[in-house]
Recover the amino acids of this structure.
């Protein structure tokens, strides 16, 4: 039986639901990344590292709510905190104590953030960061890295997937008309060329210090230092998008690990404890442009932070409970997560190799992605390397459904280890990867 036939047989309930979903949502989903052929799997219940799908199958989850659940599903501290909020009423649309406490917690851990605002998604956070940068500099152009993902705002929906020179899709303008251009990740020479080309007009450069959906590829320290200096030289704002990386590898932001100070930082995912969140903050002089009561400039403030549900109490409580646990456990937790991540990266590469299907795992700490290699070259330092040297579509589909057949839910061939993924889960997952690799070897001509 083929990988796909087996998957269909195991997921009849999901298949039926997806049949209905297709009548409701374009593509049957509310976020493109959740769709895959022949149909996504529908979960019904989750706890710790696992979920049960509508067909009653027990599946180890590596996606962890778009990487937001560092303590696993249904984390008790978050559940209790949110229940407390529900007892007091869950939305006031007024300032409240919990938002102050979460902001304090974030700022203490990431001192580069002198002022911040909460919103409901990472997309909003990066969109507002760009707007603030344009207001601060009085310039228009925005540069991002090819393969970087900062959410789907109009300004930043470009150069996400190749071909990077073309609009990301219909409804978006040509990059030139939009005032945007892309840099090649970790390539100082090429990036310098593009920055020089637009240098008088650049408001901001936005970059993830470790590319997230673009391949879990860390920036080199030299690259981030180069971007810092380039922004200083041309008077542009450097934005670090730490929506995936913030509080993922340490109790704080990755910028501090690199010892490179961005002007603005965006956060999301983990700091909301699995509830909807976005955070944008940084230099006081930039953030203060959004102050509607600026005494010294009576003009209009930068318009940021619409959002009926911004800083809503449930999110603030979930974020606080998560941050509190992370702060208390940081000395052991992050090392443990990294040990498990290392075990997955090493184990997957070894087992794929033994089967004769060479693979390379990127990532660091608790994050990893599996790339099935086309040849011997396993050096992956940019999204271009992934496009050129790996079978990325296979990782996103055949490997994904084969792993689901063996009880593991992945994204881009990997995912995020949570505090609840123990040695037992690592060992079960590695066996599943081995079985999936064997299936691929048997079925695909790669
Ligand atoms: C680095 C990065 N920035 C921004 C976003 C957008 O965040 P959201 O999906 O909450 O809008 C994402 C989402 O995955 C992300 O990974």
């Amino acid at each position: 039986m083929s990988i796909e036939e087996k998957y269909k047989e195991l997921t009849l309930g999901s298949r039926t639901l997806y049949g209905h979903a297709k009548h409701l949502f374009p593509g049957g989903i509310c976020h493109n990344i959740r769709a895959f052929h022949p149909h996504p799997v529908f979960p019904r219940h989750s706890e710790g590292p696992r979920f049960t799908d509508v067909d009653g199958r027990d599946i180890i989850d590596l996606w962890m709510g778009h990487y937001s659940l560092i303590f696993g599903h249904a984390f008790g501290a978050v559940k209790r905190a949110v229940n407390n909020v529900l007892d007091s009423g869950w939305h006031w649309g007024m300032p409240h104590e919990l938002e102050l406490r979460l902001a304090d917690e974030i700022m203490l851990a990431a001192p580069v953030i002198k002022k911040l605002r909460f919103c409901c998604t990472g997309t909003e956070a990066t969109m507002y960061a760009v707007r603030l940068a344009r207001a601060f500099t009085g310039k228009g152009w925005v540069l991002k890295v090819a393969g970087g993902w900062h959410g789907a705002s109009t300004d930043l929906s470009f150069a996400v997937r190749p071909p990077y020179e073309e609009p990301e899709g219909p409804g978006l303008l040509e990059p030139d008309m939009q005032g945007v251009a892309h840099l090649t990740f970790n390539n100082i020479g090429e990036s310098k060329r593009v920055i020089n080309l637009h240098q008088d007009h650049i408001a901001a450069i936005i970059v993830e210090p470790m590319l997230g959906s673009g391949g879990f590829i860390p920036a080199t320290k030299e690259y981030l230092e180069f971007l810092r200096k380039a922004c200083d030289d041309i008077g542009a704002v450097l934005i670090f998008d730490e929506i995936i990386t913030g509080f993922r590898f340490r109790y704080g932001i990755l910028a501090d690990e690199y010892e490179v100070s961005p002007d603005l930082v965006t956060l999301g995912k983990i700091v909301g404890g699995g509830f909807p969140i976005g955070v944008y903050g940084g230099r006081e002089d930039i953030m203060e442009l959004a102050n509607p009561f600026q005494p010294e400039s009576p003009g209009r403030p930068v318009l940021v932070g619409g959002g009926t549900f911004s800083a809503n109490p449930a999110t603030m409580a979930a974020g606080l409970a998560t941050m509190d646990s992370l702060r208390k456990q940081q000395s052991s937790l992050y090392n443990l997560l990294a040990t498990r991540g290392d075990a997955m990266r090493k184990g997957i590469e070894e087992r794929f190799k033994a089967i004769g299907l060479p693979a390379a795992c990127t990532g660091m700490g608790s994050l990893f992605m599996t790339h099935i290699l086309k040849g011997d070259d396993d050096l992956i330092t940019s999204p271009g390397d992934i496009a050129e040297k790996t079978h990325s579509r296979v990782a996103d589909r055949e490997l994904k459904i084969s792993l689901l057949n063996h009880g593991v839910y992945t994204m881009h061939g990997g995912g995020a280890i949570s505090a609840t993924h123990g040695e037992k889960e690592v060992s079960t997952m590695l066996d599943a990867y081995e079985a999936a690799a064997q299936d691929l070897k048997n079925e695909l001509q790669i």
Summary: Residues 313-355 form the longest helix (43 residues). Residues 344 and 427 are 9 Å apart (CA to CA). The chain has a mean pLDDT of 96.
